[in-house]
Specification:
CATH topology of the largest domain: FAD/NAD(P)-binding domain
Helix content: 25-40%
Bound molecules: flavin-adenine dinucleotide
CATH class of the largest domain: Alpha Beta
Number of domains: 2
Number of helices: 10
Strand content: 25-35%
Oligomer: single chain
CATH superfamily of the largest domain: FAD/NAD(P)-binding domain
Radius of gyration: 21 Å
Shape: globular
Largest sheet: 9 strands, mixed
Distance between the termini: 40 Å
CATH architecture of the largest domain: 3-Layer(bba) Sandwich
Length: 391
Amino acid sequence: MPTTADAVIIGGGVMGCSILYNLAARGLKNTLLLERDLLGSGSTGRSSGAVRMHYSNEVHARMAWQSLEIFRNFGQTVGGDCSFVETGYLIFTGDTDLDVFRTNVAMQQSVGIETSIVSREDVNEIAPAFYVDDCAAIAYEPRSGHADPSGTALAYAARARELGAQIQLQSPATGIEISPSGKVVAVSTADGRIETPLAVVATGPWSRRFLLQHGIDLPLEATRHEVIHLKRPLDKLPYHPGGGDITNLIYFRPEGADLTLVGNGNIEEVVEDPEIYASRPSQSFIQEVWTRLVRRIPVMAEAEYSTGYAGLYTSTPDSHPVIDRVEEIDGLYVCTGFSGHGFKLSPMVGVLMAELVLDGRATTIDISPLRMSRFREGKLNMPSYGFKVLV
Ligand SMILES: Cc1cc2nc3c(=O)[nH]c(=O)nc-3n(C[C@H](O)[C@H](O)[C@H](O)COP(=O)(O)OP(=O)(O)OC[C@H]3O[C@@H](n4cnc5c(N)ncnc54)[C@H](O)[C@@H]3O)c2cc1C
């Protein structure tokens, strides 16, 4: 392990890897990423990988849209493969959220996103097996889809290494040394310290505990969320687009040749220790989300259960992440709290973090709504829906 580095990135999820790569691509190559276990072993490895654009605020909509271009051209832009699959994406709403839904789609269009409100007849063509008579409005994003979160993290890591960055696996950072004048001087591990003027904390569900050690008290919670895969009746439903259903509080997408992945986002459980949680789905969750899915896609009543698992979100009170520098500690940056929707933003998170670190501020997109001080200022970015994954 090196004893000095120009920057140390703590955490090898998709965010840490994207940041490492983007710093290297901008010329900061004498860097080290520390990962406590394996790359993608946290939230990233459990992520559903949905890449859709429907958000209720500009900062996320812009990040998702600009990230989509990177996902779609990953081989040329970054190098390697993120396994992006264009499926198209439908968002369904009932009467309750109709006005805000229309406002959100208009905002998304104003930032350039290819999305529109489509008729039920249009949906019958795009997804003939779907029941839509209960919908007040449906939006369609033809260019959205999904990608492979672990594969994306690994691709960023591989490219960063090619550019000169180093990665140390199974090496948890135990702390950050801060000088009496309030500057980052080193990151410590069980195997020694790495002198550095710059540390980025991208530790996902471990962030609250890690940051508290340094007196940084952010309202972050690790929350457990389940996902299941169902084997489709292929004769009746060979394929379908991805979807986010505000009425039934489910999201879904095709997985491989014959599976449908289904998650919920709202059924959650706070986890005290991110290393100890039940990784299998509960019977009640399977029944609940399957029933909800059948309301939208009735032929899924004939599906077979295939598998399921649980993973952790890093939740904040407004379901928005924190991407910021720590004002009181020179050289310390925080990038965490992505709740259930961070993967789709990860390409731009790396770009913006590199701007913040190297240029002093993010210029491509205004990320001030994601500043850490918003919690004490009481200026939260409250999501417009009750559906937690569509903030
Ligand atoms: C079930 C589920 C479904 C999801 N579905 C979607 C989706 O469809 N679309 C979407 O956009 N997003 C989705 N997300 C959210 C997305 O996966 C996350 O926002 C994203 O993966 C967060 O990445 P991260 O790098 O911040 O965190 P993580 O992937 O958790 O990475 C943090 C890393 O830090 C390491 N670490 C922790 N402490 C230390 C330490 N002290 N030293 C060194 N390393 C440390 C951990 O081992 C871990 O590898 C989903 C998440 C889950 C759990």
